[in-house]
Design a protein that fits this description.
Elements lengths: L1 H6 L5 H23 L10 H6 L11 H24 L2 H8 L1 H14 L5 H24 L11
Helix pairs in contact: 2-4, 5-7
């Protein structure tokens, strides 16, 4: 997301979002073309089996949820891109760590999974590193936010 800060001076947020979705679509199509039929699903580890399994079409009842998730994701990307164009990445990234909390909640609600202790340990390392970077930049006196937005 740091690149968003640098490109926000010449590209609008809508342009950045368009390129994000174009590249995500192309990457997904490439991955589907290479491994979408599940031919690399030779692993015994359940996690790897889940990652390289055969792709499938969602059932009809799931499409409204997929549509809602897409709309919410688009709005959230718009907000994140706007935040990166206004503030320092070290500040905005602190708020992005809430994704970890939301992912844990979504995993529990949708899949009834409870994270193992090493997940919490890893999340604390990630969040701790971000907080350290924030305080390091604050001590160094680097600019945290611009006076006016770039766009």
């Amino acid at each position: 997301m740091t690149i968003t800060k640098y490109t926000s001076q010449k590209d609008s947020i809508y342009t950045q979002m368009t390129w994000l979705y174009i590249f995500a679509l192309l990457a997904s199509l490439l991955i589907f073309a290479v491994s979408g039929d599940g031919k690399f699903n030779t692993f015994t580890d359940p996690t790897m089996q889940f990652i390289v399994r055969e792709w499938f079409t969602n059932p009809a009842y799931a499409w409204p949820y997929v549509l809602i998730m897409g709309i919410v994701a688009s709005i959230s990307f718009f907000c994140v891109f706007t935040a990166y164009s206004i503030a320092s990445p070290s500040v905005v990234s602190l708020f992005e760590y809430s994704y970890i909390v939301w992912a844990v909640l979504a995993g529990y609600i949708l899949f009834e999974t409870i994270p193992v202790p090493r997940t919490f340990f890893g999340a604390s390392i990630i969040i701790g590193a971000g907080v350290y970077i924030y305080f390091r930049e604050k001590v160094r006196g680097q600019m945290i936010a611009t006076d006016t937005p770039n766009r």
